[in-house]
Amino acid sequence: MKAVLDTCILKLASLPNPHNPTALIVKLCWDGLLECWASPAMQEEYSVVLADEPELLALVQDRFQVCYPLVELDCVKHEPDNRFVECALAIDADYLVTVNTARGHFDKPAYGRTRVVTPGAFLNLPDVQRLLRKV
After folding, report:
1. HSE-up of 113 (CA within 13 Å, CB side)?
2. Residue 38 β-bridge partners
3. What's the pLDDT tens digit per position in 81-117?
4. What is the model's pLDDT at position 12?
5. CA 24 to CA 114: how far, in whole Å?
6. Higher pLDDT, 34 or 10
7. Three-class SS string for 32-81?
8. Distance CA 13, CA 64 (A)
9. Residue 127 to residues 60, 66, 123, 130: CA-CA distances in angstroms?
10. I need a labelling partner for 57 at 20 to 30 A (CA). Which of 37, 43, 63, 125 fits?
11. pLDDT tens, 64-83?
12. C-beta separation of 42 from 81 below 8 A
């Protein structure tokens, strides 16, 4: 049995390709080494954003665990991003991984105890580095 690192919420703002860090994070999810979550609202957004990427959409639908946030937040100026924070807080996620750290998006370093990190910063975490040596 493989050990799962941490829980994370992955905001796929750019599609992973072999030359960006998101591809490695998606691989960790695919291999079951990283616990990723999505709410129904997030899955709906992914079904639109990833419509032309059926394999990646299947990953989100099949491998991401589903959470059902009980509260609706308004803490991020870009309204749809609130769904990701709601999910992160509902499951007490360790990380919210996103490239959207500009003003009006995920511009705080953390929401509750959930740290906001870019894909590159996430991959540089010591625990993630150890996992990457296994793949």
Report:
1. 7
2. 66
3. 999 999 999 999 999 998 887 777 888 999 999 999 9
4. 66
5. 21
6. 34
7. CCCEEEECHHHHHHHHHHCCCCHHHHHHHHHHCEECCCCCCCCCCCCHHH
8. 16
9. 23, 24, 9, 5
10. 125
11. 899 999 999 999 888 889 99
12. no
Cα gap 106→110, rounded to integer Å: 9
Single-letter residue type at 34: L
Residue 121 has pLDDT above 70, yes or no: yes
Task: For Cα atoms 53, 74, 12, give the angle at the middle one, nearest 5 degrees.
Answer: 15
Token pair listed for 53? 């990427």
Strand partners for 116: 96
In this predicted structure, what is the pLDDT of residue 115?
92
What angle in degrees, to the nearest 10, is found between the helix axes of 40-49 and 82-91? Answer: 140
